[in-house]
Design brief:
This protein is of the alpha/beta class. It contains six helices and nine strands. Helix content is 26%, strand content 28%. Helix 5 links the parallel strand 4 and strand 5.
Length: 217
């Protein structure tokens, strides 16, 4: 039987710390959330490898280090409301729920969203909800989130998501799905959004999905 507890400690020491992830809250959260429980049974033995795991439907569970670096860029504090775009089976939402006050996991794939709900319930995450909606955030309330984390590389700036940010809110995403993705942070101030590039890293593209008419909790 795999020793997942030891694997989580090694994840923190050998993958996150060596990738300049220094936020102790992120290190603690990823050292505690049971990553294997968010993967299909045939992928669980590889849960802590530094790879992205396919979840079906073009979706994936991000490799640990790129995910942690992107989250660190968002500078999430405890009072923050967080939107997790492309939450898959809920692992990222479970981690973010340990950092902010409440998290909304957005997933376009209904089957994966159902798994995410079950996984969050099974792991005792009480400050998160999963919605089914297109990845452009159509139907979600505007000026609602302090932080938006996009779980996948994009071709262009996610302008449609900027309206969901509160004033002072931050959005982090990888831009450049067709080439070498660059992590960006966008900050909303006075109704305007300004972005800056920070570092190169790699996540699979955020899969396109048809827009739903409504979203479902």
């Amino acid at each position: 039987m795999a020793d997942f507890a030891t694997a989580r400690l090694r994840l923190v020491d050998n993958q996150l710390r060596t990738s300049n992830v220094t936020d102790h809250r992120i290190l603690t959260a990823m050292g505690e959330v049971e990553r294997e429980r968010f993967l299909p049974a045939d992928r669980q033995a590889l849960a802590y490898a530094d790879v992205a795991h396919p979840l079906g439907g073009g979706r994936f569970l991000a490799a640990p280090a790129p995910f942690a670096r992107l989250v660190q860029l968002a500078e999430i504090t405890h009072p923050d409301r967080v939107l997790d775009v492309g939450c898959g089976t809920g692992y990222s939402t479970a981690v973010l729920a340990r950092l902010g006050s409440e998290v909304t996991g957005l997933e376009a794939n209904e089957a994966l969203a159902g798994k995410a709900r079950a996984n969050l319930a099974d792991t005792g995450v009480g400050n998160a909800a999963i919605v089914v909606a297109s990845f452009d955030g159509a139907g979600l309330p505007t000026d609602h989130f302090d932080v938006i984390v996009v779980e996948g590389a994009l071709d262009a700036e996610p302008v449609s998501l900027f309206t969901l940010l509160r004033d002072g809110g931050r959005l982090v995403a990888l831009i450049g799905a067709g080439g070498q993705p660059v992590a960006h942070v966008f900050v909303k101030s006075g109704g305007e959004v300004a972005g800056r590039s920070e570092f190169n890293t790699s996540l699979p593209p955020l899969a396109a999905a048809p827009r739903d008419e409504t979203f479902v909790f």
